[in-house]
Amino acid sequence: MTNQDGFETLAIHAGQEPDPVTGAVVPPIYQVSTYKQDGVGGLRGGYEYSRSANPTRTALEQCLAALESGPRALAFASGMAAEDCLLRTVCSPGDHVLVPDDAYGGTYRLFARVFSGWGLTHDVVPISHVAAVREQLAARKITVVWAETPTNPLLGIADIRALAEAAHEAGALLVVDNTFASPYLQQPLALGADVVVHSTTKYLGGHSDVVGGALVVADPELAERLAFTQNATGGVAGPFDSWLTLRGVKTLAARMDRHCRNAMRVAQMLAEHPAVSEVLYPGLPSHPGHKTAQEQMRAFGGMVSFRLLSGEEAAVRACGRTRLFTLGESLGGVESLIEHPARMTHVSVTGSPLEVPGDLIRLSVGIEDCDDLLDDLRQALGDG
Ligand SMILES: Cc1ncc(COP(=O)(O)O)c(C=O)c1O
Question: What is the pLDDT of residue 384?
Fold first, then answer.
């Protein structure tokens, strides 16, 4: 592979040369824990034990690094394992970090309920307002600015380039959770971020059949430190999970194009619907982050959130009335999903500054026939 190869080419080939022994065109599942050594310390290709490295995981890591245009990626057992490894590596007890006012509930829980006990403190900032972030950076020493863009579940947009500038001027690292966009739509490292976080469970895997996570870093020295923590603590992606994720990644671009097209039509339909009070989708010109999203994203993604005029109980009822949108957590698979964030994915932020409105519904718009999806939503909202 060369640096000139396009995204779709890298997704199919980076890290995935045909097997040198058999010619297999897909990297085999190296379902193995240990490796024969040619004499003590005589490793073949650097492999000694699969917590430290495994060839199927290496293939995935090389592919993810190529897709995010970073020197190195590390693959984990879940997005949360990736976040945990990152925070243990770049922060120390006594440090202070900035976390976004809208984010995946599990990410906030990690800061508020796990790392708080370790002595890591945080402030919640409106991450789409760079001036507010700058104010916090000026007020005290900050180790990490954590951003998600688009955010889960309110689809807020953070200006990655401006945040990177602000963080770096203050000596902080900028971490961007790129799960909602995927590297096909947005490349945070190219915009100045230091670390990209993924829940590969979502668009990268793409088929709702595997849980995984990844970190991609700009600085090879930081990558070494992360690899040390990953090996020392052990939250690695297994060989079969790595293989499934890699299989999903091959079609990422084609899937994302369709996700984006369907989501735009869904957002436009909802914006006209009498039962809907607000549609949150960065592709709509009315979205406050539309211009920034246009500048830093190839298209606007497959996630659409909306609020109902008639309140929380109506939102809960609508979530139970769809035929094609499956009621369930997670996102980013080929099939459409619907959920009620306040009672499902974001229940852990109830009572916190990240609490989400009860009348909010989140859609992961799949790649089915869009006319069928629109009909399904219209019938579910029928009596609002
Ligand atoms: C934006 C975002 N980041 C991180 C995670 C955590 O990833 P995982 O569930 O793979 O641990 C999620 C999960 O929903 C997410 O939506």
Answer: 40
